[in-house]
Amino acid sequence: MTDLATTLAPERTAPVPVRPRERSTVGRRILVGVLAVLLLAALWELVKVVVPDGGGHLGEASVLPRTDDLAMPHVWDIVDRVLQPETSATGSPTVLSAMLSACWFTLRVALAGWLVGSIGGLLLAALMQRWQLAESALVPWVVLSQTVPLIALAPLVVGWGGRIHVGTFEWQRWMSVALIASYLAFFPVTIGALRGFQSPPAAQVELFRAQAASWNRTMLSLRLPASVPYLLPALRLGAATAVVGAIVAEVSTGTKGGIGRLIISYAQSASGDPAKPWAAIAAAALLGLVAAGLVSLLGLGLGRYRYAEVR
Amino acid sequence: SSDSGGEAEEEPSMSSEVLIPVKLQLQWFTQAQFAGYYAAIDQGYYVDEGLDVQIVEGGTDIVPQSVLADGSVDYAIAWVPKALASREQGAGITDVAQIFQRSGTLQVSFADKGISTAADLEGKTVGNWGYGNEFELFAGMTKAGLDPATDVTLVQQQFDMNAFLAGDIDAAQAMTYNEYAQLLEAENPETGELYTADDFTAIDWNDEGTAMLQDAIWANSEKLASDEEYQETTVKFIKASLKGWIYARDNPEEARDIVVAQGSQLGNSHQLWQTNEINKLIWPSPDGIGMIDEDAWAQTVDVALTTKNDQGATVITTEPDAEAYTNEYVEQALAELRDEGVDVSGEDFEPIEVTLEAGGN
Amino acid sequence: MTASAVRRWVAPVVLGVLALLLWQAFVVGAGIKPYLLPSPTAIVEQLVLVLPLVWSAALATGMNVLVGLVVGSVVAVGAAVVAARSRMADTLLSPTAAALSVMPIVALAPALNTMFGTTSTTPRRLVVSVVVFAPVFVNMLRGLRQVQPVHRDLLKAYAATPRQITRTVTIPGALPYLFTGLRIASSTAVIAAIVAEYFGGLQNGLGSRITSAASNSAYARAWAFVLGAILLGLVFYLATLALERTVARRQGG
Amino acid sequence: MSAVEARGVGKVFSSRSGDVVALEGIDLTVAAGEFVALIGPSGCGKSTLLRLIADLDAPTTGELTVFGKTPQQAREAQDYGIAFQQAGLLPWRTVTANVELPLELHGVGKAERAGRARELLSLVGLDDFAGHFPHQLSGGMQQRVAIARSLAERPSLLLMDEPFGALDEMTRERMQTELVRICAESGAAVVFVTHSIPEAVFLSQRVVVMSPRPGRISAVVPVNLGDVRGEGLREDASFFAAVTAVREALHGTPVTARGVDLR
Amino acid sequence: MSAVEARGVGKVFSSRSGDVVALEGIDLTVAAGEFVALIGPSGCGKSTLLRLIADLDAPTTGELTVFGKTPQQAREAQDYGIAFQQAGLLPWRTVTANVELPLELHGVGKAERAGRARELLSLVGLDDFAGHFPHQLSGGMQQRVAIARSLAERPSLLLMDEPFGALDEMTRERMQTELVRICAESGAAVVFVTHSIPEAVFLSQRVVVMSPRPGRISAVVPVNLGDVRGEGLREDASFFAAVTAVREALHGTPVTARGVDLR
Ligand SMILES: Nc1ncnc2c1ncn2[C@@H]1O[C@H](COP(=O)(O)OP(=O)(O)OP(=O)(O)O)[C@@H](O)[C@H]1O
Ligand SMILES: Nc1ncnc2c1ncn2[C@@H]1O[C@H](COP(=O)(O)OP(=O)(O)OP(=O)(O)O)[C@@H](O)[C@H]1O
Ligand SMILES: [Mg+2]
Ligand SMILES: [Mg+2]
């Protein structure tokens, strides 16, 4: 493996059997999660009490946040705002229901992007596993691809997507968003899968060679199962980055219906209604967790392959 | 899309029923800035002209004129200087109706800062949005003898006015119809009441002589030149759109309701304020709404050619060619409207009084 | 140079050149207008024109990356040391790191701008720190936990004090893991710093230059700044790699 | 036809720091059904030779045939079974599934696979662990699974690279006795790499002693301990005599034998 | 005073899946300067016993003293040196720095450390590798570094857990000869765990044979091969006789010896 590929992938750890998750630990995790949220809320209010309204400066740099109600509204105000209608227009839904439907939209688009990105990533990793030359040639570009800002790509994707008309199929805006999300998601999956495909020790690889097993067969029976411990965390991370990508892309392309659009819309009323944008931010963060959590479910049926999970 | 127009022609028997599909690309999300088009849909003006208009919202990185030149949409709303820049990059587009006759951009400061002209900006922290919305500001400063790159600290503003309210920015960019309203919807922590217009001073670029033309309807030049069907559609589209704007002038509250119903996130009072301010930018239009004023065009081109931004670039480098704008279609549309007895100049337009609520609600 | 070294350097370069040629041929051959896709030569032309600007913008963004990277890493390493010592801290910190790793920074940036001031560089650096925290924390913690039982027994047999154990075994053993984390962090830090410029703040970095050029339809100029961003990412990546090599060499790796 | 036939086989590894001559001028014939042990100091090329026979590497010089075919043909025809020093089990497969792997790869039906696996597991004394996963087994048990796997297709040639290295002395001796029995029953030829002199002597009909840098065959010690090898043999004087003979061949210098004679 | 004194020592590991009795009723005395080998099947508790002596674990029952002190006192007084089955070198330290580690931890001065490390490395034949890092050494060389490290503080008790397990037969035999010499010179008592009967016999004055589940001492075989143990000894009839005796003790059933006698 080239240096660049060793890079982003986690270290290999000794095979340690992963105990099947017991119900109590799942319950514990939820409890810890709730606890963490409460702690965060308490911390937030504490900061508001302790730090002066104008924040704190160390020379030129501001090191402590402003704590007035414009910058940091009270937690209860945010919660209260979530339950109020979005706008004064008659029939306006509550912020909560608007955010839920927006999250649902973004989640679907992000998962579509994640699916495309993951499949692409897996294929690319398989290609690089198959031919070393491909690996040498591609890995640096795969790494560098992630330094191209999405904001430079969004107009291109929208522009070129708009030219696709095949029969009755017409390129939709949300497809551009999903495509951009997939551009972020493919990266961790590619690197994780490559690392996983290359993880079987020489003894196992040679065993398959000694059995005169074909490349396809070796991929299917050896490399793919062996890559599961690497793949699962990569897919999880891919899901989270797909959400980030979808949100940026929604903002960037002005796609309606998603949480990215809500963030901007709510931000426009940040000066007069400061609790509203915070609600959207919290929703976006939760969405990332939910997406990663959903993908974690994939691991449930794969217990036997997770003998050496790399977290 | 133009092909579908062709289809309609091939089947004349259906033409009374089949509407020509038209897509309009906006430069931002749904809001009263585009009230006229939404009103035209709502009031059936487009259908009356045989058009089925679909409005496509914009986004931060969507450049409407590119989308138009691509052929993905049939018309686009864009500011003139930005559209001229795209023309230089090969986008074949033509300004066929200049809806906004005035610039709506202000540079707002707290009254106690004593900033009322461009020259007062020297040494101050000056906000702008970037995205090509900054040239009037730069031209104003240049005209006042300031170098935008060195004599002020430039800060990009977010979509809110928090940085200005917190005092990070001395003079912030604000559209009369949007951000300025946001200021008046915010609570003044000293009084516990909303801010009032007296708390602020504003530099108006119309007064400074560096205003540039803003929202205009752009059409695809290539199709204008070769496609007769498209030419006809253009006239119809302009005509119905103008009617929409006239409706918004005469019925601001109804226009506001139409926009709000389209799912804008901005509140009722904010949208009404916006409708009213937009009306002020359009009306009165002495030559008729949509007519491109030679002098205003010349000033826009002049500023675009000469003003350098902080990157040392001007908007355009050469004088735009004759195809950049034409009054041909808007004149036809106006003629038809005048025939119908519609007031297209709004000489006695009077803005309404709008009271903003907290948070724009 | 051995064959593998040749392949490692030549293959990607050849591929890159090939892609550029195809791109150029496509733009020229199909007569693609610049507003749709600028050609590589046009981008390079622009790059030459705005080079000083690219340089100063890369410097400004680079500074944000550097400060954010250092602050985020230091905090993450400290947190990992604490988490390795106490179960209690671990149960709180590990989920926090997981949550931070999926945090959409686009949502965070505007809020931080309001909290710390748009004219301050703090929000951007904070965004970078947030992005950096998770990978460094997770890897460092794994490294600290990686102490081999045989080493632990050995030091116990020598009646070593806890401080001696930390100094001679735990920290040196965790270093390779720390660097794995830093390598991931360094390339994501650059993207984070650029995205953080997206919504506002000082207009001195690569991110705001890209948006401003793109919205003026000056795509070639925008891509010249994108090129700057890619190079900045490369610089940080190679710098961490070099640091790692240096440390590894001193440790006999 | 002989199972393995090597004529002047050599192998050079080229690396950054120069060439390593791992093997040079190896001439070796292993008859069908014959048990040959390879012994020699670390790095003398035992594994390399085994890998050449298995077509996991190609010789640089010389000629090598397996049952008269090229090693590649022999590999593709599945003429041999192989067991490595590390067990190399697939951790996500049960013990049974691991043993079945070669059969599965070659399209043997489900029922037949299961039957064969049961047979093999009882052979290596792991009937009770059929459904376990590798990590639930001790190192020695894993090694036994690997041996069962190498026997799955009843190969006429077995290649084994220190398969008992991980076992403790007692288990090791038990496995040796088992292996002798299995080979006698199946009539397979075996090339067996080991570091242990007593093991080499106990198992094989000929001990091939190698010397390092470059790897050559320095001696071939025939062992004639008869066909029935029981536990008693290990305490027999003839056994000790053979051990001494191999030790001397290995050390290169004859040591005066005291009190024992080669029979 | 005896080096190690165990009276009724037992050790039970409690785990989720139940208790494991690793050791039960161990009575063992190791005299100062005596070399004792522990042998027994895998899992019989050899390592556990060694770890109890080293105070790396505490016995559940019974009494254990090292030079008359509790194991903890002995550990803190650095009365023993220890070598594990894995070399356990710190990969980021050079060979010299690894050998110096215990001295460094106990505040021995720089110059003295360097001198002692040089001495020890030449003892294990690694003078030329002083500046190398562990990964540049073969498994056997690493093990020798670990042995040098265990000797660094001239302990009067050496605890060694299969230190030669990773070595090939030849190196192993060489290291055994060396170890006998070093112990004779330093007069240290040694408790040496091994799986290899010949190794136990060659090295020790007494072979303690253990049986598993629960781990008990099943036999103690005294070996009297004299003080000077050279290579020739390995081919001596008395050596084979002792090997046979230990094997029989290990298997539990006496096997009829053919052709050799215990001297
Ligand atoms: N892939 C390789 N590349 C370079 N050198 C190699 C390679 N494989 C083996 N060698 C070298 O070839 C020689 C023989 O190695 P081989 O593994 O066959 O020894 P061995 O007799 O099996 O040793 P051991 O008993 O330690 O397993 C060694 O010097 C080794 O360093
Ligand atoms: N930490 C532990 N927790 C639970 N059980 C243990 C632990 N350490 C050892 N055991 C059990 O105690 C018994 C003795 O183990 P020990 O390691 O002493 O055996 P050993 O004789 O050294 O074996 P080997 O020759 O394989 O090294 C085994 O059954 C083992 O499973
Ligand atoms: Mg080998
Ligand atoms: Mg042990």
Automatic annotation (TrEMBL), chain A:
One of its GO terms (biological process) is transmembrane transport. It is a multi-pass membrane protein. Gene3D superfamilies: MetI-like. This is ABC transmembrane type-1 domain-containing protein. SUPFAM superfamilies: MetI-like. InterPro entries: MetI-like, MetI-like_sf. The lineage of its organism: Bacteria, Bacillati, Actinomycetota, Actinomycetes, Micrococcales. GO terms for cellular component: plasma membrane.
From TrEMBL, chain C:
The chain crosses the membrane at residues 53-84, 91-112, 124-144, 177-200, 220-243. InterPro entries: MetI-like (IPR000515), MetI-like_sf (IPR035906). The keyword Nucleotide-binding applies. Its main location: membrane. One of its GO terms (biological process) is transmembrane transport. It is a multi-pass membrane protein. GO terms for molecular function: ATP binding. Residues 54-242 form the ABC transmembrane type-1 domain. Keywords: ATP-binding, Cell membrane, Membrane, Nucleotide-binding, Transmembrane, Transmembrane helix, Transport. GO terms for cellular component: plasma membrane. It is found in: Cell membrane. Belongs to the binding-protein-dependent transport system permease family. This is ABC transporter ATP-binding protein. It comes from Cellulomonas terrae.
Automatic annotation (TrEMBL), chains D, E:
This is Sulfonate ABC transporter ATP-binding lipoprotein. The lineage of its organism: Bacteria, Bacillati, Actinomycetota, Actinomycetes, Micrococcales. SUPFAM superfamilies: P-loop containing nucleoside triphosphate hydrolases. Pfam families: ABC_tran (PF00005). Residues 4-237 form the ABC transporter domain. It comes from Cellulomonas terrae. Keywords: ATP-binding, Lipoprotein, Nucleotide-binding, Transport. CDD domains: ABC_NrtD_SsuB_transporters. PROSITE patterns: ABC_TRANSPORTER_1, ABC_TRANSPORTER_2. PANTHER family: ABC TRANSPORTER ATP-BINDING PROTEIN (PTHR42788:SF20), TAURINE IMPORT ATP-BINDING PROTEIN-RELATED (PTHR42788). Gene3D superfamilies: P-loop containing nucleotide triphosphate hydrolases (3.40.50.300). GO terms for molecular function: ATP binding; ATP hydrolysis activity.
